[in-house]
Amino acid sequence: MTEVVLEAVSAFRRGAYVLAESLFGECQKKYGSKFFSPNVSVVKNRIIRKFVSGDVPPSLDPMVYYCIPVMNRLEDIQTTLRHNLSVLDCFSNVKIIINLFDKSDESFNWISENFESEMASKVLEVNRLKPLAFWHFSWAKNSFKQYIGDDGVYSSLDGDNYITKDEVARTKQIYAEFGPAVVHHFTGSWGDGSSGRVSVWAEHYKVHGYRNELFPRQFDEISLMMNVLRSEPGVQYFCRAEADIFSKSWFLRSFQEKENWQPTKRFVDIGANRAPENPKGNGYVQSDEKLEAYTKINANFSLLKLAQTKDAQKYFADHLNKAKDQVFVSDAAIEIATMAVAPCIEELCPDLSGKTTLYSVVKNDDIFLTSWIEHYRSIGVERFIIVDDGSDRPLVDAMLGDDVFIFKPVVGDFKNFKVFWLMCLMKRFQRAGSVCVCADADEYIDIPESDSDKVSKIEALKRTNLSLQKYGRVPGILLDLMPKNESVNVTYDNYLETMTHHSYVDVITAEVEAYRTHPSVRWAFSNFWQKSFKYDLRYHVYGTVDCLRKFPIFIYEDNLKLNQGFHDLVKAGNGSMLESDDYLLPIRHYKMLKILVDQERTVSDDFSGYFGRTAENLSKIYAAGKCTLLRTWRHLEKAPYESKYFVLS
Q: HEC string of 202-246?
């Protein structure tokens, strides 16, 4: 006991009041309030007096930026702002910053008229930003990075939140005493408006920030705290003893277990809390299917991105996939799907339709787009719904035609959400029973000539193709095309005319056992593996194995689930297999074009957006380079490309 008391007294004398209060509190719990309650009270009062007096050296009085993003919530500001400014009037080195996303001038005018002196003295700053298409917590809360300094504290505040004198003083004391930290102002009661109150060191907020690729709300504040704590090992986590988010959150308990990791925690008095104007109440998430989906997807995705062990990565990837699948059986499916992917131009949004539609995710594939779209129009695609995954030149600027609709992702990344984005768009815009086409920008599906010249090739396919009629899908095989020989000069302008051949390796004379028994080949082609082997250029050149089977044309149903590369279609839990009466459509694949034309760029490409084996294979292919490709191709058996069906039996 004596040692703890002496340590507490020593901490108090050197101004380490948070530590002193904690140590006196331990003694109070163990030996009774009558002995140590006065000590705790003295420390509490000293913390407030220290910062209110204004006698604190600048090095011990960190700047605190209370950052309030607001969109169309003037009534909240009218209720809370005067109180919050009166609290800050007691302190030095404090500031409220309001970022307004309103379209109208009403909020800005009201604040300017009522708080002219506070704005003049810089204790209040108001910035007018471009209105958001819809409210998104992470986007709005990340908007303060250019308005705060590196040395200081970013503290989140919603428009209906109140601050207290006790809280401000204690926040300052924590940072003065411990340096950069994560402070969670959570009371421990869900839905009372406190769980989103977070303070972090300003530089850490700027570097790590909230995760932008989330649904508009839920788990955003935890994403900020976890981004900082996982990236800055020396940073400690401060919270009330009854409000430890790492114990209260099932997601964080799982993360700690799977990663064998815990933050350094300190349980302290965060300061008096005043309830916000619009508390949600406990259980509000569980009673709302949309918010529950947001929570599960945001949480599992955020933690997947931070996971370092294979066990944790698999765990959160599996739970993320389950959460995404649940969206499409939810009563809120359309509402969630609408939020997942947004039109680049609000006014240009397609209707729910039975038109034959091509769905694709595209990034920086300008070299293909014009001819790619023209090709699919020529075979009967009636409209194009494309997700632009952050192209350097936005696709919406490319003027691709009135039948082309460009969307941008709101949630997730290519690796984990490509299929989810497309399924969300199909859910919104494709009528059940109509035909969909899925193809990447370097894939050209050919449909052999039909007997009728009165209908499009896709329309003829609908009427005559037995695979589509019996199984609801048409399989295809990827054919990596190359020039006939290395003397042919391939460019981005002439690749359709010059890349005319594919591999055609004799199965009888080749070493085939390793290929035949490869899991990917067995899964995709089973007893028909010879078809894949003949045309697998990448295997014959690099020894890599990727799935050449695709299901690029299919009849859309609400219960249909796509595979990441369109290699499979899952209905009622059952995947699609090749049948003996299937005919494979040829798919011209121009994967090798960039290697042949722009080797320097492809070597530096980032393949982290692909899953394990695919990422490894792409890295190997592009690292080998143009010379290796052409040298091997020179001696490889090959054949000219023909637009014809490939018969399995």
A: HHHHHHCCCCCCCCCCCCHHHHHHHHHHHHCCCCEEEECHHHCHH
DSSP letters spanning 427-438: HHHB-TTSEEEE
pLDDT category of residue 106 using cuts at 50, 70 and 90? very high
Q: Measured between alpha carbons, how far is 173 from 12 in angstroms, rounded to an integer?
A: 12
Chain-centre distance for alpha carbon 603: 25
Distance CA 28, CA 264 (A): 23
What rounded mean pLDDT belongs to the chain? 87
With b for 16 or more beta-carbon neighbours within 10 A and e for fewer, the 523-557 pattern comes to ebbeebbebbbbbbbbbbbbebbbbbbbbbbbbbb
User: pLDDT tens for residues 542-601?
Assistant: 888 888 999 999 999 988 888 777 888 888 777 788 888 888 899 999 998 988 887 555
The helices-and-strands tally (H runs, E runs) of the chain is 27, 23
Q: Are 578 and 450 in contact (CB under 8 A)?
A: no
User: Residue 357: CB partners within 8 Å, gap ≥ 6?
Assistant: 381, 382, 383, 384, 385, 429, 430, 434, 436, 437
CA-to-CA dists, residue 647 to 74, 475, 529, 582, angstroms: 67, 11, 13, 7
CA distances from 184 to 140, 208, 280, 448, 453 (A): 19, 16, 19, 63, 68
**Is the Cβ–Cβ distance between 173 and 18 less than 8 Å?**
yes
Is 573 in a helix, a strand, or coil? coil
pLDDT of residue 608: 64
Q: Work out the average pLDDT over 302-309.
A: 95
The pLDDT value recorded for residue 147 is 95
Q: Record the tokens describing residue 276, joined without a space.
A: 């916000």
Gyration radius (Cα) of the chain, Å: 30
Cα three-residue angle 433-435-437, rounded to 5 degrees: 145
Length of the chain as a residue count: 649
DSSP state, residue 450: P
Tens digit of pLDDT for each residue in 31-66?
666 656 666 666 666 676 677 766 778 778 899 999
Closest by CA position to 127, among listed 113, 107, 156, 153? 107
